[in-house]
Amino acid sequence: MNFLRKSGLIQWSLAGVLLSAGFIYTVLWPLGILGLAYFIYLSSREISYKKAALGGLIAWTIKSLAALMWFLSVYPVEWLTVSLGNAQLLIVVFYWVTNSLWLGVAGIFVAVAIRKVCALTNRKLFLLLLIPGVWLMGELLGSLFFSVMTYGDAGVITSAFSFGYMGYLLAQHEWLVQLARVGGVYGLNVSAVVLALVFLWSVKKMQRKNSLLWVLFFGGFWLSAYLPFISTTATVNEYYSVLTIDTTFPVMQNRTLEGEKRMQDELEVAMQTALSFESDYILLPEDARYFKQLIPSYQEKALFQFLNENPKTIVVDSGRVLVDDEAVLQSFTYNGLENTVDISHKRYLVPQGEFMPYFYSTIIKLAGYGEVVETIEKDISYTVGTQTSQADAAASTPGILYCFESVSPWGVKKIIDERGTVPFIAHPVSHGWFNNPTILWENLDSMLKIQAVWNQQYIVSAGGHAVGKVYSPTGEIQSLETIASGENWKVRQTFIPVLQ
């Protein structure tokens, strides 16, 4: 123990490991509360601001490395038409480490600010008010700095990228996640820091002989996460029937005319199967491209109605579309109930996956892989379109939260602010670039669960290379029942209560 006390960098690294454990294995989420307490303790006891800054950077970068470990699931990269050769793994690791560092830089501010606050006052009430605010400010600054360092043609300076927020750990607790009703993940961030302070002060007050009691208390807190939340929601008598078409088409299949035709033929079979169940809604994965969107929307609607005997179902599809020679991700929602088509563009694009940041494109070009950058910018990258608002959508059309817009804590809230009320939130996703990204899926589950609780909305996802799920306003994640399947698709069904 003397060695640990003398070796400050090891102590800060241990704090980072505790902070990060729950992002890799969600069952270890309570260790994040211990990590918070230990980080606050180290910050308050550090002898200089310089050492506090270095320690904060180390701890937060470790935390971010864990939260972004899903970057590694991109390897091997199989969706590029050009080869990265032997540098493939090196590039993936470079992306992972540097992106984690951009988020980790905020740890400098947090550690220094906590040390300053603790130097100014030792009154617990003031600390209870100030330190949670400092931590929350740090999370926001980390996201902001990340957006600056990953800025590109389709980028915006924003605090939307929220991987690694400590509030997401509380999503694993059936009761504590209900606190998300006040402020979403931001409210949970504050709650997590308050819990950490309570734990820290209780440990300081306990004598050595009471340490066993504290361990039992912490163990009970850990186990309390599995107590089912008792909902007092009123009985619902009316439901929407919702089908999803989850797909597993090979990522490169649509790169040839033959492959694209084969995929369209299979998708048509899946659609006809789904239509035969006469459900209220059918959701497709992001960029499924069932509707071609090469002709005016009213003609596409009329053609679909003619070929399918005017179905009353509402179908949510999306695809890559050129608008003024710029590629946008555009949703196409056929609303057979109100005889309309609703169109909107994806409003938040994540760097790396959907556009090339200037910093990374420059580095990759200097390394001799300019062809890779040109291919990504030409065939894969998107821009933010001009029709991002969903305010004018038909009342029965669901709100649409595109893939990876879930990482923005206010993704659903923005839709609700525009629409007022929606039947539910449709969440089309596509994870074909990843190879079984378990850590990513668990992180996204926490994000969507919290957004469902905060906005009191059902969220239904439909996945490409991912399994569709339902996220309820009480924080429950529900599976959908598979009712039909083909070689590369499955039709799944769920019933969503009609919220009054």
List its traits.
500 residues, 15 helices, five-stranded mixed beta sheet, 12 strands, seven-stranded mixed beta sheet, alpha/beta
Provide a short characterization of the protein structure:
By secondary structure, the chain is of the alpha/beta class. Helices cover 46% and strands 14% of the residues.
Descriptive account of the structure:
By secondary structure, the protein is of the alpha/beta class. 46% of the residues lie in helices and 14% in strands. The chain contains 15 helices and 12 strands. The protein has helices at residues 2-6, 8-24, 29-45, 49-67, 88-104, 106-120, 124-149, 184-205, 211-223, 257-275, 297-307, 358-366, 370-380, 411-419, 438-455, and strands spanning 239-247, 281-283, 314-323, 326-335, 340-345, 399-400, 425-430, 459-464, 469-471, 477-479, 481-485, 489-497. The strands form 2 sheets. Strands 5-4-3-2-1-12-11 form a 7-stranded mixed β-sheet. Strands 6-7-8-9-10 form a 5-stranded mixed β-sheet. Helix 10 links the parallel strand 1 and strand 2. Helix 5 (88-104) packs antiparallel against helix 7. It starts with a helix and ends with a strand.
